[in-house]
TrEMBL record, chain A:
Pathway: Protein modification; protein ubiquitination. Gene3D superfamilies: Potassium Channel Kv1.1, Chain A. Residues 124-163 form the SKP1 component dimerisation domain. One of its GO terms (biological process) is ubiquitin-dependent protein catabolic process. This is SKP1-like protein. Part of a SCF (SKP1-cullin-F-box) protein ligase complex. It comes from Eleusine coracana subsp. coracana. SMART domains: Skp1 (SM00512).
UniProtKB/TrEMBL annotation, chain B:
This is F-box domain-containing protein. Residues 10-46 form the F-box domain. Pfam families: Beta-prop_AT5G49610-like, F-box. InterPro entries: AT5G49610-like_b-prop (IPR056594), F-box-like_dom_sf (IPR036047), F-box_dom (IPR001810). Residues 116-387 form the F-box protein AT5G49610-like beta-propeller domain. Coiled coil: none annotated.
Length: 174, 389
């Protein structure tokens, strides 16, 4: 039962929607910001999320969702301009600065973010976080990558197989 | 949270796709993290997505032709021609580089061969020394596949013939994005000129589909003749442009890939054209460039078929872009990558790649000495995703 009053208006006030995290925290945001998520956009277009109902997000905890929404609110105006062809260089530089700061966070938060961005299909955020993790593993050896990402050490069999490939690609290790 | 568990295959895909294409070693090392990553990176789907995301293939390196393999000399063979890898200079990885497939075979491939041209992931090589064996091979450095071309019907006497050749995908621009066509069909355009025989300028096209050279086409314009040099040409708007020397001055030979017609474009009178290099201009048309007094002059040809007007489009001051020791002697233009608009300069302080559109400069690191004077270089541009397992 979507709230009809707040939902259908093109009359001034921005339409708001409510999102509910896995730990039952409610977040009220503009529909335009939440619509950066392809998944949410469909629900919102169907009139969902308004009034008291809210859209439950059982896979996203409140800490992650708050971070996701921080991104969406910042990027919503540019996205509304269709990728911001009219954006000034200053606007673009400001977004870039925001993005750089935004991913300067703890690794565990990064993983939660990339999963949330993937589940919610927020293309820009997905790309931003994936790029950050790619930058973290770039230039590292396979073992360093494993340790950076917190993988357990390989089994002797697995290590032997990888060593065989390493010989073939010696140039990548010089 | 367990990070290893958090990263599902989809997320790993997202991450690895964003490793930089100009640093293929990073992708190889990531592939060797575990079996799942190895399978992912080696898959055709990943290869396709990697190309689709990055769009512009990087210059993985270039093939260096050394001075002593002069086409007119049949005795001095360059056995040290080699592959120089390009690297991101800003990173700490100063020695990681791409080397074509198995290191044994690439050495065999390049020493004793002259690189003539490279495009769309393929390299055209000619056997050395000149004049004794006339063998041309199209080589894919990534898969190490080689296709030996059949001999041309006429023998190329290096003392009397001038010629040049180019390799490319068999499909024209617009119908192929050339991002992953290096395993597909290709063609080799050969242009030659024999002044003494009176044939003048002629062309033939080798098609990998038929495995044969086409019939010979001669130029209807008797004025187009002169000495062609074996050096990389430039591909601009579905036409190839070759330099040739007519009596004492240079002319540009235009070869239209659709009509297979040849025509001549005069250079600016009075310009010392000995040291110029053909390039793609900023607007995507034909241009040329030369170095004088530490400045790079870029000129572009106005896009009219009837008038040959050249206009100065840009001057790049090398003094502000290159370190002082690189300019101790005049830098030499040794190569141009038409797909990327990147010029390669040989200087007293090694190689530099300059983007003629953005003026971005990259110092090309290499741990080994080139081992001779560089005659020219043939840039190799391709995506690289490892095939393991």
């Amino acid at each position: 039962m979507a709230a009809p009053e707040s939902g259908d208006g093109n009359n001034g006030a921005a339409r708001m929607v409510t999102l509910i995290s896995s730990d039952n925290t409610r977040f009220e945001v503009e529909a335009a910001a939440a619509s950066l998520s392809q998944t949410l956009q469909l629900t919102i277009l169907d009139g969902g999320g308004g009034g008291g109902d809210g859209i439950p997000l059982p896979n996203v905890d409140s800490a992650t969702l708050s971070k996701v929404l921080e991104y969406c609110i910042k990027h919503a105006p540019a996205a509304a301009n269709g990728g911001a062809p009219n954006a000034t260089a200053v606007d673009r530089a400001e977004l870039e600065r925001f993005d750089n700061e935004f991913v300067n966070i703890d690794q565990s938060v990064l993983y939660s973010l990339i999963m949330a961005a993937h589940n919610l299909e927020i293309e820009g955020l997905q790309s931003l976080v994936a790029k950050k993790v790619a930058d973290m593993i770039k230039g590292k050896s396979p073992m360093e990558i494993r340790r950076t990402l917190g993988f357990p050490d390989p089994t002797p069999e697995e290590q032997a197989e990888m060593n065989a490939h390493m010989l073939e690609y010696g140039w990548a290790y010089e | 949270m367990e990070p290893a568990a958090a990263l599902t295959a989809d997320l790993v895909d997202e991450i690895l796709l964003r490793l930089p294409p100009h640093d293929p070693a990073s992708l190889v090392r990531a592939a060797l993290v575990c079996k799942a990553w190895l399978r992912l990176v080696s898959g055709a789907g990943f290869r396709r997505r990697f190309r689709a995301l990055h769009r512009t293939p990087p210059m993985l390196g270039f093939l260096c032709n050394l001075q002593d393999d002069d086409p007119r000399s049949s005795t001095n063979a360059a056995h040290n021609n080699r592959f120089v890898s390009c690297l991101p200079s800003s990173s700490i990885i100063t020695r990681r580089r791409f080397i074509p497939k198995s290191s044994g075979s690439w050495r065999r491939c390049i020493s004793g061969w002259r690189a003539i041209d490279a495009r769309h992931g393929r390299v055209l090589l000619h056997s050395l020394p000149w004049g004794i064996v006339q063998k041309m091979v199209v080589w894919d450095p990534i898969t190490d596949e080689q296709t030996e071309l059949p001999e041309l019907p006429q023998r190329l006497d290096p003392y009397h013939w001038g010629w040049n050749a180019a390799v490319m995908c068999a499909v024209d621009d617009g119908r192929c994005d050339h991002l992953d066509c290096h395993r597909g069909l290709f063609r080799v355009v050969f242009v030659g000129c024999c002044v003494s025989s009176g044939i003048g300028m002629f062309s033939r096209v080798y098609s990998s589909e038929s495995g044969a050279w086409s019939e010979q086409l001669t130029s209807t314009n008797n004025h187009i003749y002169g000495c062609l040099h074996v050096e990389p040409c430039v591909l601009v708007r579905n036409a190839l442009y070759f330099r040739f020397k007519h009596v004492a001055y240079y002319i540009i030979l235009k070869y239209d890939l659709s009509s297979r017609q040849m025509s001549g474009i005069p250079m600016i009178p009075g310009v010392d054209t000995e040291e110029f290099m053909l390039i793609a201009s900023e607007d995507g048309g034909l241009g040329f460039t030369g170095v004088e007094d530490s400045k790079l002059y870029l000129l572009s040809k106005e896009d009219t078929s009837n008038h040959h007007r050249w206009t100065k489009s840009r001057v790049i001051n090398l003094g502000t872009l290159l370190p002082v020791d690189a300019l101790a002697t005049t830098p030499r233009l040794v190569g141009f990558a038409d797909a990327l608009s990147v010029l390669i300069l040989s200087t007293g302080n090694g190689f530099f790649a300059i983007n003629t559109k953005s003026s971005e400069v990259i110092k090309i690191e290499d741990s080994r000495e080139v081992g001779g004077t560089v005659y020219n270089v043939v840039p190799y541009i391709s995506f690289y995703t490892p095939l393991l397992g």
